[in-house]
Amino acid sequence: MGLFDGLIGSVGSAVGGALVEAVTAAVADPANGGLQGLVDKASAAGLGEHAASWVGQAANLAITAEQAHAVLGGDMVQALASKLNLSPAEVASGLAQALPEVVNHLTPEGVVPTPGSGGLQAGLAALSMFTGL
User: Fold this and answer.
1) Measured distance CA(133)–CA(129) in Å, rounded
2) Residue-level pLDDT at 10
3) What is the pLDDT of residues 89-126, one digit of tens each?
4) What distances in angstroms separate CA 59 from CA 27, 51, 89, one per listed residue?
5) CA–CA separation, 54 vs 47, rounded Å?
6) Listed residue (128, 106, 126) closest to 115, CA to CA
7) How far apart are alpha carbons 22 and 97 in whole angstroms?
């Protein structure tokens, strides 16, 4: 099974790609603190154990749509809902699937790479190829 097969199966390839693109953009945006900032936001939202599982070598702990909404913010969810012509609940549900997978993909060694590191840049590039950026 491919990295995002479950997400694609549940929401379709165009929507799944847009959701992965949104999470990838959040990770790449220095205003969000990069990947570490996203992990920190998850921890601040009470999802520290979940975030640690996405980064670490263990199985990824799932999150709910509401938890994804809390981590990524209502503005992102609403903007994506408008862009994709979906309800915010549908978008948040898809983001709940995409967020753990994206973080896991970007942390293959079980640690958050430093901003500007080759590992992080390579991971972001690979995700960009997936989403067609």
Assistant:
1) 6
2) 47
3) 998 998 898 889 888 888 888 988 876 666 666 666 66
4) 21, 11, 25
5) 11
6) 106
7) 12
Residue of higher predicted confidence among 48 and 27: 48
AA identity, residue 91: V
Q: What pLDDT is recorded for position 11?
A: 46
What does the DSSP assignment read for the chain? Answer: --TTHHHHHHH-HHHHHHHHHHHHHHHH-GGGTHHHHHHHHHIIIIIHHHHHHHHSSSPPPP--HHHHHHHH-HHHHHHHHHHHT--HHHHHHHHHHHHHHHHHHH-TTSSPPPTT-HHHHHHHHHHHHHHT-
Which amino acid, one-letter code, is at 119? G
Second-level CATH architecture of 5-131: Orthogonal Bundle (1.10)
Amino acid sitting at position 34: G
Sketch the domain layout of the chain as residue ranges. 5-131
Provide CB contacts within 8 A for 46, sequence distance 6+. Answer: none
